[in-house]
# Entry
Amino acid sequence: MITGLIIGVSVSSLVLAADTTGSSATEAPLILDTITTQDDAHILVSFNQNIVAEAVRVRISKQSDGSNVKVEKVTSVVEAPKSVLVSLSDILGEGSTYTLTVLSAISEGGVVIKEGADASKEFTTPIPLKKSILTFNAPANPNAAIAST
# Structure
């Protein structure tokens, strides 16, 4: 591609250099691959490339009423470097359909997910839906009172 005009130089003295930066090579796009419901408060989100969990931000919407499901945190999965575990503050309903949209994600190779079809996917929770284990921070003595000042 010619980007400028050189005056007073003969064609025989021009040397064309090849592009060695690799900018013309196409990188594989980062794509949201699968969504697996682990239980009513956790979903496994998988991509087509190893992912940096700290860079993943998602939004989950319930299709029946458009309400958003609150995301508590996103963590890496050691055994599955292409996946992240999304922990929810809200509980998913059995047999409900949701849309997960990846707002941001970066692969370990530095590829950023593009908005659109590659960043959004529908999923339906199974019936029955496994219940998550709740942890209560109650005092050891049920008759004890917790006082704060």
Q: What stands out?
A: Confidence is low (pLDDT under 50) at residues 1-24. The domain at 32-124 is CATH 2.60.40.1220 (Immunoglobulin-like).
